[in-house]
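> call design_seq(struct)
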């Protein structure tokens, strides 16, 4: 179910390009799912639900780097 939901979110992001890179679109999809699961917006809490195969600290670093380095198209996002 998680993969199907992630694929649907990625498809939506391709139609409304908030980010251009496919890998970043997939990350946004995973991040949205993690936000919904955690029901919290703090990166440390969301990181616990992002990717179970890696450490929480690695997930948190990935989230921080995404928001630090990625230019989001806020006009499309709105």
């Amino acid at each position: 179910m998680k993969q199907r939901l992630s694929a649907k979110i990625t498809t939506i992001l391709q139609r409304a390009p908030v980010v251009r890179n496919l890998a970043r679109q997939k990350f946004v999809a995973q991040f949205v799912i993690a936000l919904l699961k955690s029901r919290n917006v703090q990166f440390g809490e969301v990181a616990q639900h992002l990717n179970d195969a890696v450490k929480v600290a690695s997930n948190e670093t990935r989230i921080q780097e995404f928001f630090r380095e990625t230019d989001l198209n806020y006009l499309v996002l709105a």
